[in-house]
UniProtKB/TrEMBL annotation:
Classification via InterPro entries: ASHA1/2-like_C, START-like_dom_sf
Family: Belongs to the AHA1 family.
Pfam families per the UniProt record, alphabetical: AHSA1 (PF08327)
Protein name: Activator of Hsp90 ATPase homologue 1/2-like C-terminal domain-containing protein
Domain Activator of Hsp90 ATPase homologue 1/2-like C-terminal intervals: 40-173, 206-333
Length: 341
């Protein structure tokens, strides 16, 4: 109840002015095109989405141009080939080789289109920089063989097409979290003001419930080395309160306080509010525990004060934080640190 994982929703209070969720374009020298964009994902997750041939076709397309071939040998000196269908009888093809592969921070490759509209080989350098928890800035420098090729790219549909594809990637991240972790974690928007999170655990319901109400256990899965839970106070009863304080790597302290409205052996309902109160009022959280065949499904329904507040949380990268917290909880339960019935 209450989530270390939800704190990335507060990132607007410490992120800098360059944290744009849309593609920014600048021209450097005579042949370089520099593109920057911020993603609500860690460098590791963004790197995986940029380099996994099973994931790329799910987002790297725009204008109804699906990627129909994605072959990649991800190593220095390795080759790749990507093909998009731009019409029923027309394909767009590009190929190249990887010059630098430094996961998850730097990727350099050459590329040339089959119709060679650029008049030679282009070099693309992508740099991933973590600028806040679950927030990564991607900087891409595209070096064209001649100024005319850069001018044609900047004036054409390349930038809108890339932003359309990147928007698809942003929307894909919540689904990737569960898939890549090998779990059934899901986070989706529901209704006008809600977010629903689901995850199951190989443990009895009583153990999972206790892990949500015992301060000694909460500290072990709601905190992490990069965001320790410095304060964890819990009065687990109807009418009782709780207070959590996390410490970020830069020393920023994030507080969350709340009141428990109902507490049964199958559900917890509470209100919560961050300090500062960026959501414009208390958030209501209903956590439900359902056991079947020794496995417990957890469903968290979060209702925000307004639709803009809910949308800001969705855009914050909170899903990756919650998925990580739940991974810690899974390990805690597997170790038998909670009482099993």
């Amino acid at each position: 109840m209450g989530w270390r994982s939800a704190t990335p929703a507060l990132k607007p209070f410490w992120k800098g002015p360059d944290m744009s969720a849309t593609l920014q374009l600048s021209m450097v020298g005579e042949t370089d095109l520099v593109l920057t964009r911020t993603f609500n994902a860690s460098p590791a997750l963004l790197w995986r989405a940029l380099t996994d041939p099973a994931i790329l076709p799910r987002w790297q397309w725009a204008q109804d141009w699906p990627m129909v071939q994605c072959d990649m040998d991800l190593r220095e000196g390795g080759a790749f080939r990507w093909v998009w269908r731009t019409a029923p009888d027309r394909l767009m093809k590009v190929q190249g080789r990887f010059l630098t592969v430094k996961a998850p921070l730097r990727l350099v490759h050459t590329e040339v289109f089959d119709d060679d509209w650029t008049g030679g080989e282009t070099t693309v350098t992508q740099t991933l920089t973590e600028i806040a928890p679950q927030t990564t800035r991607l900087s891409m420098t595209v070096r064209y063989p001649k100024p005319e090729a850069r001018a044609a790219a900047a004036a054409g549909g390349m930038i809108p097409g890339m932003e359309e594809a990147y928007a698809k990637l942003d929307a894909l991240f919540p689904r990737l979290l569960g898939e890549l972790r090998g779990t059934d974690f899901r986070l989706v928007a529901t209704g006008d003001r809600q977010i629903t999170v689901t995850r199951s655990f190989a443990a009895r319901k009583a153990a999972v419930l206790r892990a949500h109400t015992d301060p000694a256990l909460l500290r072990r899965w709601m905190g992490s080395p990069d965001m320790p839970l410095a304060v964890c106070e819990m009065d687990a009863r109807p009418g009782g309160g709780f207070r959590y304080v996390w410490v970020m790597q830069d020393g920023t302290r994030i507080a969350l306080t709340g009141t428990i409205l109902t507490l049964t052996d199958s559900s917890i309902t509470h209100t919560e509010v961050f300090d500062p109160d960026w959501t414009g009022g208390p958030t209501t959280v209903v956590t439900t525990f359902t056991e079947q065949a020794g496995r417990t499904a957890v469903r968290v329904d979060i209702t925000y004060a307004t639709t803009p507040a809910r949308d800001q949380v969705l855009a914050s990268g909170m899903g990756e934080g919650m998925a990580g917290s739940y991974d810690l909880l899974e390990g805690l339960l597997a170790a038998g640190s909670s009482a099993q019935d």
